[in-house]
Amino acid sequence: MNDSDGAPGRSSNQDGTRHGEVSDEAARHARIAGHQSPFSGALGIHTTNWAPERVEGRMEVKPWMANRNGVLHGGALMSLADNLSATGTFLNLPEGRSTVTVETKTNFLRAIKVGDVATGVATPYHRGRTTMVWEVRVTRGDGKLAAVVTQTQLVIDWNGGGES
């Protein structure tokens, strides 16, 4: 393929960048996906793939994350889902907007044992101007579905300050 200037051997991506270059939007998406809260970092949540229409991530189940039955605590699983949904929402927002979770519903289907990996895939049901609704399917290392989480994210203006 030739570049738009006709020079042989230099081709462009669909977004107009040259191969090996990253568009401003792709760089912004990578920055959003890579920026995790200290809480998510403590849980070991890693965003592995991201796009405005799909976010994937994983979390290794450590012994301190277990409930009294010795399997992943439901709150930790929900934190993985919340992180992926919020990341997906941020990927769809213009600069200066933010998001908070206003509703979550989780169906727990199977336990995830300590030492296993929880993998989540978030896809949107709705990407609106004021709310976004995401489904996150969480699987175990054996590929079996462990939970389905539905989250509603509210789109807000945020100046970074807290309320007293």
Please describe what this structure looks like.
The chain has 164 residues and is of the alpha+beta class. The protein has one domain (24-157): Thiol Ester Dehydrase, Chain A. The protein contains 3 helices and 6 strands. It has helices at 24-34, 38-43, 74-91; strands spanning 46-51, 54-60, 97-108, 117-127, 131-139, 145-157. It has a 6-stranded antiparallel β-sheet. The longest helix is centred in the middle third of the chain and has 18 residues, at 74-91. It starts with 23 loop residues before the first helix and ends in a 7-residue tail after the last strand. The model is unreliable at 1-17 (pLDDT under 50).
